[in-house]
Amino acid sequence: MLIILLAGILGICAAIGFDVYVPGYLSSYIAIVIISAVDSALCALKSMFEDKINVYNLATDFFVNTALALIMVFLGKKIELDLNYAVLVVFTLRIFKNVSVIKSALIKKMQKN
Amino acid sequence: MKLKTKVQIIVAVICFVFCFTVTLQYKSVTRNNTIKISKSSSDNELETKLLNANQQVVDLKKENMQLTSDIDIYRQQVASNDSGAAALKEELDKYITLSGFTNVKGPGITIEVTDSKQAQADTDYSSELIVHDSDIRSLVNELFGAGAEAVSVNGERIIVNTSIRCVGNTIMINNKRCSSPYIVKAIGDKDALDSALNMRGGIADELKRSTIDVNVTKSDKIQIGKYTGTVTFSYAQDYEKQVK
Prior knowledge:
heterodimer, A: 4 helices, 81% helix, B: alpha+beta, five-stranded antiparallel beta sheet, 50% helix, 19% strand
């Protein structure tokens, strides 16, 4: 768990250090990357409480999901259909589901002790 | 490496990306804050700004008219007090008239140029069938060439530094938008003006070939308004010597 916290703080420091800004037209893409990252992080955390862990699945999960989400946002902008809201809904649903699974697994662990 | 550790590393990497992107996005959003106003308030802001600007224009125009009439009164007073000044005033009046700053009347012609009716039937404006700025320019050129002393297009007096430019599918004359139908008035020898336009292969022929409506009427009582803008020279200075 410590390494996760460390990586997070490193990320914040890196962004503050870097004098790069996101231009206006790219902001919706970066936002989708954020949500996709939360979703795949929670998916990976959920997998820790399961029996069958496929590491490769988790590793590629993030990149594939983010790529797909970016493609959908891009297409949505081209066909004037706000697909980024649809992608957002799907990711949020998964976040909620994963959080509840993690919560019940943690509660089961606590009850065992 | 234990499986759990591997998963933790993956989560750590994702967490790094997440925190990095969130901070980046937060920085950028707070920086672009002026652009990211909610839609409704920016519409209102623009509306009030536009109304204020329009009101300013109206007020300034009123002030301009008041000041011009004041100047006229002063000129009259000066001329009536001093005979030398009267001669100067006459010369001044002559140049004011020549340069287009007074309303004028006299014989001449009126030309009405309208976009082709076929262009209105098509949904995409075929550029062949509408009146271009170049057409208006050629028309004005022909009129001056045939001896016109005053020319106006849709009420805009053509003076020495009048520009006739294309803006989308309208034309900007004296930095004011004009659109079809274009009413061109010219004061001069009405027969000379009329024949200069209607000669074979002339401008009227060319325009009619693109099915643009051209209506020329001669008259003895053409009235042309004065130039309503301001002219200031900030670069050109008086030069006494001969210019080759």
